[in-house]
Design brief:
single chain, 115 residues, alpha/beta, Transcription Regulator spoIIAA, 3 helices, 23% strand
């Protein structure tokens, strides 16, 4: 499982208003560097992370999500998570970081500006 690839699709491109990144595969220490780079480098006002196809996440992946949250909060930008599985959400609960994030079941359910 450690060698499972992580694929990230930039659904909207890097726009000023809203960017959607669709993540496929587990977010692990062995593969999270591209993910971390994309979320840290995001400059759009609203970042939507579609995690529907993320079966699990390790502590490095959780750290990358928390880092993205902190980065977006300091600049008054929003970050929302979409399609989070029970297993991933459980990991966020166990590590006590769940309260930092806004969750939506689908992309269609997010506000247009995901504010």
């Amino acid at each position: 499982m450690q060698s499972d690839p992580l694929r990230i699709e930039d659904v909207t491109g890097n726009t000023d208003e809203r960017r959607i990144l669709r993540v496929n595969g587990p977010i692990l220490i062995s593969n999270f560097f591209e993910f971390q780079s994309l979320v840290r480098g995001n400059t759009s006002r609203n970042l939507v992370l579609d995690l529907t196809n993320v079966p699990y996440i390790d502590s490095a992946g959780i750290g990358a999500l928390v880092g993205a949250y902190v980065n977006h909060q300091k600049d008054s930008r929003s970050l929302v998570l979409v399609g989070v599985t029970d297993r991933v959400r459980g990991s966020l609960q166990v590590t006590r970081v769940e309260q930092f994030f806004q969750f939506y079941p689908t992309l269609e359910s997010t506000p247009p500006a995901a504010a």
